[in-house]
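I'd like us to work through together how a protein chain folds, taking it slowly. To get us started, please write out a protein record for me. Label the sequence line and the structure token line clearly, so we can match residues to local backbone shapes. Once you have written the record down, we can walk along the chain together.
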Amino acid sequence: MSNCYLRAYFISCLHVLFHNPAQYSTTISAMKHSGSIPSTENLPIYYDLYTPDSEDDHKPLPVILFLHGFKGFKDWGPFPDACASLSSSGFAVLAMNFSLNGVGESMTEFDELDLFARETLSQDLEDVGTMIEALKNEGVRSAGTNPLDTGNMGILGHSRGGHTAVAAAAEYPEIRCLVTWSAVADYNARWSDQMISDWQEHGVTDILNGRTGQIMPIKKVVYDDALENADRLMAVNRAGELSLPALFIHSKGDEGVPYQEAETLFNHCSSGQKELKLMPDSGHTFDASHPFEGDNFPDPFQQVLTHTRRWFQNHLQ
């Protein structure tokens, strides 16, 4: 495992108070510990673990796992700053790259398309389980003195990562709280006729990464895995197993995943503590983009982060 410690990791962000549009800026300090653990295929699962810079008498820190989406990575846009901001509220926030997401040691470039081509939902779910075990067995440790409360974990996922977060929340009993951002409800409903035809005829289909211009292959194994293991992998199927507090956040203007998918997840969720928050029209990433170079989060993204923080504070601390 390769580890590096970055102390006094400073970010600037806005905090939105309740539903009042008034905002103020503050500087947040967090510690960041980076490393990797081996997946079930012995591929690296890269991670960043954020912990509060100001520690409270060795108090155990509840852990929040952050899962990126399709064609995403843990260092996308404002995700690192958002994780550090959540950490400042008394959490250990672990952002991870899925082992087959196609991003290697660069952390921000899709330079391993051979892995991306076979990134199955099963392997993503296994990666979450591998990370949970590493946290429990101290294969991943905090950079500070506060121990990690690995029996009290939350999970937060964006888009496809939200889809996996729902499945993981049903799969792993260590997870006690769930938040999704722009989550897909049923990944098997997203395969187009052209993609299915390509898989049947050629064993692979190609998609365009609009941001980088790359042509990215997806092999038939991804499709087969999703169909064959739908009961375990599809978020809409697993939502009915949930009894933990679950918050589903989505933008009504999401151009990539319609907000009705959040409604579907909410309606299928069997938890007695669930909430659906539909945000004004702000897009799939709540007006955030990559690279993130602003001093403050976009207002919609900040509102989402504030709702997320409160949910974890109310149900995980």
